[in-house]
Amino acid sequence: MHADHVMGIITLLRNVLFPPRIPLPDPSTIRAAPPFELYGPAGLRQFVRTIFNLTCTRTSERFVVHELLTPKDDLTPCNTEVLHPNECIGEDIVCSEDGIWHEFYSQRGSMSSIVVDAGPISHRDPCLGYVFREAEGSRRKVVVLGDTYDASAIIPLAKSPNLLVHEATDAYIPRDVDPSVKRKKEVVEEKILARGHSTPVIAGQFAKEVEAEQLVLNHIGSRHPAPHFPYRRGDVRLAVMNEFERQASEAWGMGKAKVAYDYMRITIPVPK
């Protein structure tokens, strides 16, 4: 629920749910089933509801927020007195005894039913990782982790993914890659772990442990800005991203890791 992960939800919702028509339509004409469903940790429902109310947001369509809860989490009420005018009643989905949310969502896709599981990962604050998998057919699997310095708790769900998306917030960059570097390797590693984040090496080690087929690094810290585009020879930013990929790939040992960028597409072939 950190700001860099949730603030964009509000503008996304406002766009996909569309502004209300003028004059306001009869409520009975609005689709009863919400076209947009959010799933997330405790507090997400209250967050969306509060921002919508404080900003006097109204939309043409409805939304619903389902929360993934542990037995210790407080319930966010969903009675009609507290619902936002465009909000539907959400589900409170409590994890199993093993701390996992098994198959909390499923939807028929073009080739197979898609099932989603979730599990806890270690960060400064409660955080989740998600597993998207085909229930039949080729049974491809994608694992997307949130902020973490140790994702071992989700390994039972995450084994043998076709794609692993793992954060790599910071890394030690040698001076032969970026001559302006002044930080020492041990200082970088100590601080990144203290802040609850991962290095490319940690991401690569986890990818090796779960035997991932592909590895994409995301959540690169602002200390390491994206390369200039179009790419050009001698760009230090590009060299730094290549170093992120090199470190992760070396720790992984099963392929070449890639640093994510906006609108990136990854192909996951259907097994023959």
Question: Which labels suit this protein?
Answer:
272 residues, alpha/beta, Metallo-beta-lactamase, Chain A, 2 domains, 7-stranded mixed beta sheet, 4-stranded parallel beta sheet, 6 helices
Can you characterise this structure?
The protein is an alpha/beta fold and 272 residues long. It has 2 domains: 1-94, no CATH class; 96-271, 4-Layer Sandwich (Metallo-beta-lactamase, Chain A), CATH 3.60.15.10. Helix content is 25%, strand content 22%. It has 6 helices and 11 strands. The strands form 2 sheets. It has a 7-stranded mixed β-sheet, with helices on one face. Strands 1, 2, 3 and 4 form a 4-stranded parallel β-sheet that branches. Strand 6 and strand 7 (127-134) form a beta hairpin. Helix 5 packs parallel to helix 6. The longest helix is centred in the C-terminal third of the chain and has 17 residues, at 236-252. It is globular and about 65 Å long. The mean pLDDT is 93.
